[in-house]
Amino acid sequence: MSADANKSTTNGYEKPLPSEEQQRKINEVRKLLGPLSGRLSIYCSDASIARHLRARNWNVKKATKMLKETLKWRAEYKPEEIRWDEIANEADTGKIYRSNYVDKYGRAVLVMRPSCQNTKSTKGQIRYLVYCMENAIRNLPPHQEQMVWLIDFQSFNLSHISVKVTRETAHVLQDHYPERLGLAILYNPPKFFEPFWTVVKPFLELKTQNKVKFVYSDDLNTRRIMEDMFDMDQLESAFGGNDRVGFNINKYAERMREDDKKMPSFWAMETTPSEAPQHSLTMATSSDSPNLNSDSDTSDHEKNDTFSLRGMETEAVLSEEKGLTIDDSKNIVGEVH
Question: Residue 24 and residue 22: Cα distance in Å, rounded?
Fold first, then answer.
């Protein structure tokens, strides 16, 4: 395991306080965005703008461009309007769900089980992922902005690999939920996953790549990551914890429906006095977001690269993945660089 794994950043938790210079940049972005209203105005809190700035290394132009694309996406896709009954069929097998425990930093935990994939629609799978992201964000404590992904590779095989879904997942996470992922733990990935990781790694920004950790139940060093991050009595036994209560779709559905009822108040109360943008809070439609397409810095090539759920790219041929060789001398544990 790398020496970095012994540092506090091993757990992927960092929350620097905004400086005076950072606040100035936040104000610059807000000015470039222009007037916003309704949910888009609420979304653009200081904290949200700061996340986009951090994702672009505090470059105001790049962060503004990124945020405009996200506002456009939210106005069209309306992720906050997705409800449980719309995506419940995607959840039956427990392939993604928000756990009823958090890590030691208070971060929400999304459990993912790729082997439990139960549908073939990329659009439906991504919509369910977005629902889960929005739900996890709603359940974060006031001091916390990030979440943890626990990815369980039990019973995982080649038939569960989809470069297409992985790439779209990376786009959604990086382009529209910047700085929301604190850490992604890949638990007991099989050896054949290594060439797949080689294929998908270029889809991820370096900052995201460094948030991915490979943990193996038979490796004491990497198991320590779980002990450092979680209360082992609360952590599921599938991840080395002591809780043997499994996923129950009926109980989970009840939790999600209760959370859905809280959505309107969440968007009404999201803005705090310290973060409140000085814009009208009347309900927005897609036409309430002026100048979201304007960006003199955006080339035609960059526009074509913008993520769109309506324009899925052709999935890479699985045989290409199988053709990759595995460097057996490579020991992927701890932090992945």
Answer: 5
